[in-house]
Amino acid sequence: MKMSEGVEWAVHSCLNLAWVGPAGAVTATQLAAFYDLPTAYFNKQLQALARAGIVTSTPGPRGGFRLARVPEQITLLDVVRAIEGPTPAFRCTEIRQRGPGAQAPENYLLPCAIAHAMGRAEQAWQQSLADQPIADVDADVARTAPTAAETTRRWFDSQRA
Amino acid sequence: MKMSEGVEWAVHSCLNLAWVGPAGAVTATQLAAFYDLPTAYFNKQLQALARAGIVTSTPGPRGGFRLARVPEQITLLDVVRAIEGPTPAFRCTEIRQRGPGAQAPENYLLPCAIAHAMGRAEQAWQQSLADQPIADVDADVARTAPTAAETTRRWFDSQRA
DNA sequence: GATTTCCTACTCGGATACGGTGTGTCCGAGTGAAACTGG
DNA sequence: CCAGTTTCACTCGGACACACCGTATCCGAGTAGGAAATC
What we know:
The structure is a homodimer.
Chain A: H1 5-20, H2 28-35, H3 39-51, E1 55-58, E2 64-67, H4 76-84, H5 113-130, H6 134-144, H7 148-160
Antiparallel strand pairs in A: 1-2
Chain A binds a DNA duplex through α3.
């Protein structure tokens, strides 16, 4: 069970966009170049964020991406679901109803106990993600690497010139 | 991010083994036939459980698998980690240290804030799994489908004859 | 009849192919700005 | 000098290949039990 690599890129992009601010749009090329990552694939992930309403995209010259909301209102769950999709990790295929062990359909009105337990765990995971907005991650970065935000902002500003 | 299908099979197998009891070993062929699933692949999952010390395997005629511990001491986390492996879903590739945005290595002594936040969520997930032994799932099944345990046990007994 | 030997059938276990999803890349549609032309 | 028009470079957006891991399968090593031969 592995999470898509794009999630890491997306969260970093949200942080970068938050640091740059809503004034100017940042292109996918610039965001990819900042980490030396494949441009086109990076763009693909940003499109997913745009579809989810996390960032807004403007085409044409001087276009690019910018945050659609303030960092306080973008949770990690939003970003993860935008990239990974809404499908839960554990998918009950109802094998209990298959084979010679199967009973009458009336016995399967209640959900599978295993799926129930797994769903509970996943809900705990999602809750933890939902409780952490991008702003919180930003605060953690400000505490552990105080110079990162300002340095990043200046680099993107220099690219715009 | 999807979990391996084998997890569902493994948990069901643990429940079935718990219902049959430690007296007689159950073969992979029987467990697979019970749900009408591919035998060889099912065997592969059971091997993973055996490597993790969740079940014990005995070769030869009258051989098979049986639970290595009582259901109270087998958590869902044990089963999931046995099948999925210990690798966490989110793997930080440290892209923050790549590209022109990289700073001096001394700035990266503390762990990445994003990986930290993701790790916190995964820990909540694992904790929820660790808090639910197979015995709890068994109890839930006994509540929602009281006849399942006894019916299953009888079917496997009939196969042994 | 009891014991030893051998054999056979059955089990798990790891090594070997196939397919689907994530990964990576490409080119086209749309847009805004800048340059050019005419008044 | 100013307004209108044209052109063009730049952006996102979706459609197109490649690779790796999960899925599925097969055959071999090992073992227990039973049958046969011997005493």
